[in-house]
Amino acid sequence: MPAPRPASAPSITLPELPVSARDSMTRVGDYELYRQYETVNVYRRGPGAKVELNRPDRLNAWSNQFALDLLAAIKEVTDSPEVRAVVVTGAGRAFSSGADLKEAANDRVDDLKDPDDSRAHVEARYAAELARIEARYAEDGVRGRAA
């Protein structure tokens, strides 16, 4: 608990600051829901798109349906020539906890692959799609990724 302020402490009044264009701009987080998949949401605002992993009850764990929805969402935003930037985020308190072990336990053991092969497959599949937006920037002379 903070110490009480002495009664003799002077109060400070700050001058009223002018409203600037920056103060009236729309926040970055003000995206509008564009499409809702079973486990992924796509939000759009101008040239920006936000792909939100939406399984917060399972800490956005990776499942078969999740993989299909995420790929469809990424293809959708990369197919749109208006989209210039994509943010991938997770709903709830985790971005993603990794594989959904409960679902994996129900899969046949023969169907499970080496984790290194799976990671390479995921990186190749999703990175290739997102690279299409980076290529669009390269045409305009803009280079680099945010992450």
Give me the count of strands.
4
Structural category:
alpha+beta
Number of helices: 4
CATH superfamily: 2-enoyl-CoA Hydratase, Chain A, domain 1
What form results from the Cα inertia axes?
Answer: globular
Mean of the pLDDT scores?
75
Examine the secondary-structure arrangement and name the CATH architecture.
Answer: Alpha-Beta Complex
Helix percent band:
25-40%
For the biggest sheet, the summary is: 4 strands, mixed
CATH class: Alpha Beta
Name the helix and strand elements from N-terminus to C-terminus, one letter apiece. HEEEHEHH
Structural domain tally = 1
Rg over CA atoms: 22 Å
Distance between the amino and carboxyl termini = 40 Å
Low-confidence stretches: 20-28
CATH topology: 2-enoyl-CoA Hydratase, Chain A, domain 1
| Strand neighbour order, sheet with most strands | 1-2-3-4
What is the strand content? 15-25%
The oligomerization state is: single chain
Key features of this structure:
147 residues; 2-enoyl-CoA Hydratase, Chain A, domain 1; single chain; alpha+beta; 4 strands; 4-stranded mixed beta sheet
